[in-house]
Write a structure and sequence with these properties.
The complex is a heterodimer of chains A (266) and B (298). Chain A has 266 residues and is of the alpha/beta class. Chain A has a domain of 177 residues: P-loop containing nucleotide triphosphate hydrolases (Rossmann fold, 3-Layer(aba) Sandwich). Helix content of chain A is 34%, strand content 25%. In chain A, the strands form two sheets. Chain A has a six-stranded mixed β-sheet, sandwiched between helices. The longest helix of chain A is centred in the middle third of the chain and has 14 residues. Chain A is globular. With 298 residues, chain B is an all-alpha fold. Chain B has two domains: 38 residues; 223 residues, MetI-like (MetI-like fold, Orthogonal Bundle). Chain B is built from twelve helices and two strands, in the order ααββαααααααααα. A two-stranded antiparallel ribbon of chain B has the order 1-2. Chain B is globular. Classes of the chains: A alpha/beta (266), B mainly alpha (298). At the A-B interface, helix 2, helix 3 and helix 6 of A face helix 7 and helix 8 of B.
Chain lengths: 266, 298
């Protein structure tokens, strides 16, 4: 039904520095094709929002960017994903290093069953920065950046499982920030949060944007339009339209995008 | 069938099931009472302190010397040795089966390991006695091919199926999302297993180890056959290479030729009581550990 992304004016190439570029990206789960020919350019140090109805494979697309789909047996990727110009699906790619560079915050927070401190220190310890004072510093910095420090600074040794849902979500962010990724992938941010926490996290994202390239998958149209610079609309495994957020939300070229952002379906 | 008859039948079935359940508890209590009855008279002859610290087991001497220390230490040596071998191997094997092995291998390996559990202990004893013992004795240049470490080795194989099987269940029960979160932070698979999966499954693994320990300390036939049965106190690391005698082997070897109601007879029951308490404690702790959920800080 769709047309190929490359030669279409529906897919706009962002200006400025490029962080990630996919070309002809396809994803199969066994026989089922979850993504079709996605060719898109993601701008460095900007927020890119991916929108679309449930089951449109936007999360699958996100998981292609740090090769989390590798963990699903039967999943197969075709096409290219370039990170800073290098194909991350090249056989010489060290996946652990890739995932350190391209951090991911999952849809539901999953703290490790250990203390708050150990959760945040987990990544840095993996990557071998182990001096006690350095770790303390990274933990504090990451928790501050995730707007959680004030609430937990006296209980760092307590189990992370005792935190509230919203706190766990911010802990997941702190945990990713602690490994200092270059790209931050966020799946459905704020879906389980109250408005105050949502507001905080949006502020946080805008703050982080100066240093990170952020890609968010969201169902929340308001959020996408408020915080993102670029937006892409996925439908049934295809990227229908991609461009500056104002264009996607106010003046979409494709009828299906128009219908979706106006809330006619999805 | 009318309602009244049906109700009576239901009542009978319910009571029967209840009785079957209660039976298990009754048996445990009855065994405990029986052990107590025949063990307690030993204190007409000796004291708890002398039993626990006596360094000589010569029950047929006049007066009998009823020091349990060599037997207790013998059991501890063999058991600890068995755990030192079977725990790292068993947990590693469980981690491999659950985390690394491809599906077909997992489906072959786990049943294969569980089959180990069905081998009669006398067969392990036989293997140790005729094969492993002489071979190790030559390798390590030992005078006697029967020694504590040989018992440990054979027991390790016997405890392994339980440790592997239960640890594997515990590891598998760790949510997949925890692994994904770890990998997404740039952890390798090995780092994920070591730092997240095993700690998250630790209560189940600890329970598996304790149950394996209960199995090892209570095992009789194999140790009777391969540990040499010399009631001497094992000392230091070389103790593993010398013959020892365990509590279980002592009971098995001596009960048949002990006169009824002698101090020796009662002392053997005291050993049985001690074993019962140790395995009961190991099982209870395992149970408590499993129930206490995985959540902790350090």
């Amino acid at each position: 039904m769709g047309m190929s992304g490359m030669d279409s004016d529906l897919i706009v190439r962002p200006e400025g520095e490029v962080k990630i570029e996919t070309s002809g990206l396809g994803l199969f789960y066994g026989e089922f094709q979850a993504l079709r020919d996605v060719s898109v350019t993601i701008a460095a140090r900007r927020i890119t929002a991916l929108i679309g109805p449930s089951g449109c494979s936007k999360t699958s697309f996100l998981r292609c960017l740090n090769r989390m789909n590798d963990l699903i047996s039967g999943a197969r990727v075709v096409g290219e994903v370039l990170l800073d110009g290098r194909d991350i699906y090249h056989e010489a790619t060290d996946v652990a290093v890739l995932r350190k560079r391209v951090g991911m915050v999952f849809q539901t927070p999953n703290p490790f069953p250990m203390s708050i401190y150990d959760n945040v220190a987990y990544g840095p310890r993996l990557h071998g920065r182990c001096s006690r004072s350095q770790l303390d510093e990274i933990v504090e910095k990451s928790l501050r950046a995730a707007a959680l420090w004030e609430e937990v600074k006296d209980t760092l040794r307590k189990s992370a499982l005792d935190l509230s849902g919203g706190q766990q979500q911010r802990l997941s962010i702190a945990r990713v920030l602690a490994v200092e990724p270059e790209v931050l992938l966020r799946d459905e941010p704020c879906s389980a949060l109250d408005p105050t926490a949502t507001f905080r996290i949006e502020e946080l994202m805008i703050e982080l944007m100066t240093r990170y390239t952020i890609v968010i998958v969201t169902h929340n149209m308001y959020q996408a339009s408020r915080v993102s610079h670029y937006a892409g609309f996925f439908l049934l495994g295809e990227l229908v339209e991609y461009g500056p957020t104002e264009q996607i939300f106010e003046n979409p070229k494709d009828q299906r995008t128009d219908d979706y952002v106006r809330g006619r379906f999805g | 069938m009318n309602t009244g008859a049906r109700r009576v039948r239901e009542w009978l079935i319910e009571r029967a099931i209840q009785a079957a359940g209660a039976m298990a508890i009754v048996f445990v209590l009855a065994i405990f009472a029986f052990l107590l009855r025949d063990a307690l008279p030993v204190f007409r002859e000796t004291t708890v302190r002398d039993l626990a610290t006596g360094r000589t087991w010569l029950p047929t001497a006049e007066p009998p010397k009823l020091g349990l220390l060599p037997l207790l230490l013998g059991s501890l040596y063999v058991t600890i040795g068995a755990l030192l071998i079977s725990v790292p191997l068993g947990v590693a094997c469980a981690a491999f089966i659950s985390e690394v092995a491809p599906r077909w291998m997992r489906e072959t390996l786990k049943p294969a390991v569980e089959v180990l559990a069905t081998i009669p202990s006398v067969v392990f004893g036989f293997l140790g006695l005729l094969l492993v013992g002489p071979w190790l004795a030559e390798l390590l240049d030992l005078d006697v091919p029967l020694f504590a470490g040989l018992g440990s080795l054979m027991l390790a194989f016997m405890a392994m199926p339980m440790i592997v099987s239960l640890s594997e269940d515990a590891i598998r029960a760790v949510p997949m999302t925890l692994r994904q979160n770890s990998l997404a932070l740039g952890a390798t698979q090995w780092q994920t297993i070591w730092r997240v999966v095993l700690p998250a499954g630790r209560s189940g693994i600890i329970a598996a180890v304790l149950l394996g320990m209960g199995r090892a300390i209570g095992e009789t036939m194999t140790v009777l056959m391969v540990t040499g049965n010399a009631a001497v106190i094992p000392l230091g690391l070389p103790g593993f290479l010398r013959p020892v005698r365990t509590m279980t082997a002592t009971i098995a070897a001596e009960m048949g030729e002990t006169a009824y109601n002698t101090p020796h007879y009662h002392a053997l029951f005291a050993i049985g009581l001690l074993l019962f308490i140790i395995t009961f404690a190991a099982n209870t702790i395992a149970d408590v550990v499993v129930r206490r959920s995985g959540r902790t800080t350090r």
